Amino acid sequence: MTDTQLAQPHAPAGLPPLAVLERMYEVMRTVTVTDERARAEAKAGRMPAAFYPVRGLEGVCAALGAVLTPDDHLVSTYRNLADTVAKGVPLRAVIAELHGRVPGSSKGKGGTMHMHHDPSGLMATTGIVGSGLPIAAGLALGAQLDGGGRAVAVTFGDGATSIGAYHEAMNLAALWHLPLVFVCQNNMWAEHTPIAAYAPSTALAERAAAYNMAADAVDGFDPIETWRVLGAAVARARAGEGPTFVECRTYRLVGHTSSADYSYMPPAELDAALARDPAPTFRAWLADGDHVAPARLDEIDKAVDTGVDDAFDFAQSAPHPEPGAIYDDVFADRTWVEGR
């Protein structure tokens, strides 16, 4: 990790409005508490599903959620908890899907890897590394043809930048000037492999130069700076100025999965990253800088804890899909007719 990555969040000019600051903190705290609860439930066997922790990404996802509207589209990965919460998917629907229950965002049939929630603009999450990028390119082409200024964002890890679909999507987006924001959630690990072991250049944003598209790299542990950079990228997409690649540099604070060992991480690196745990660090910055009153932050904390407990209780008491439901939602029930 670089010295820049270890710096504390600063107070740049042009802060978000108070309501946005509060919402960003709410998202970050919700993700932190939910992630810890989900890992515990998975290990205890009460959530019989693979769960991919998102600890370390809270600030990046909160910033992205703050610059997108429900009308904007988002495509995420299997490591999607923070993205879904930030995009506005109800927490009950998220946790019910993790448990494979009917009230889940995909009716309990998608599980941890395959979330979808139309009202929030969460179009898909995918279990195949890099596969979300061409999906997002297609959505961005549709947004471009429709007009109206809709932006599309796609999130992916650093490992996905070595997948062929990544390059295909980047090329098409640049060629057609699509309103697409590529958000690389660089947590420095492709499963158990450090980025320097598979990429000859770890400056991933520089790759975008080969496609002649705008690019930026940002300290993902600084949610305010990330908010600004992502906001500029979304504004560029809305204005018809083409795609942007944003590399958000963070660090994965736990293992690859809920049960994975992470002793392979260099202890000094992990300790330095843990010292910047996004939610508590942002909370301290908000309070110490008089941006949000400590009493208000306490209220948010209490509401988050209550909401997380409610979501897990709701999910664990909800029904599983009936066996016959496997045949529902497989094919469209309408046929295309020319001229309509």
Describe the structure.
- The chain is α/β, with parallel strands linked by helices.
- The chain is built from eleven helices and eight strands.
- It has a six-stranded parallel β-sheet with strand order 2-1-3-4-8-7, with helices on both faces. Strands 5-6 form a two-stranded antiparallel sheet.
- Helix 2 (18-44) runs antiparallel to helix 4, helix 3 packs parallel to helix 8 and helix 6 runs parallel beside helix 7.
- The radius of gyration is 19 Å and the shape is globular.
- 48% of the residues are buried.
Radius of gyration: 19 Å
H-E string: HHHEHHEHEHEEEEHEHHH
**Number of structurally distinct domains:** 1
Helix content: 40-55%
What class, by secondary structure content?
A: alpha/beta
Provide mean pLDDT, rounded. Answer: 91
Overall geometry comes to globular
- By CATH, the topology is Rossmann fold
Number of helices: 11
Q: Biggest sheet, open or closed, and with what strands and sense?
A: 6 strands, parallel
What does the oligomeric state look like here? single chain
CATH architecture: 3-Layer(aba) Sandwich
List keywords for this structure.
340 residues, alpha/beta, Rossmann fold, globular
Topology readout:
Layout lengths: L2 H4 L11 H27 L13 H10 L5 E4 L4 H7 L3 H8 L23 E4 L6 H15 L5 E6 L6 H12 L4 E7 L2 E2 L2 E2 L19 E6 L3 H16 L5 E6 L17 H8 L3 H11 L5 H24 L23
Parallel strand pairs: 1-2, 1-3, 3-4, 4-8, 7-8
Antiparallel strand pairs: 5-6
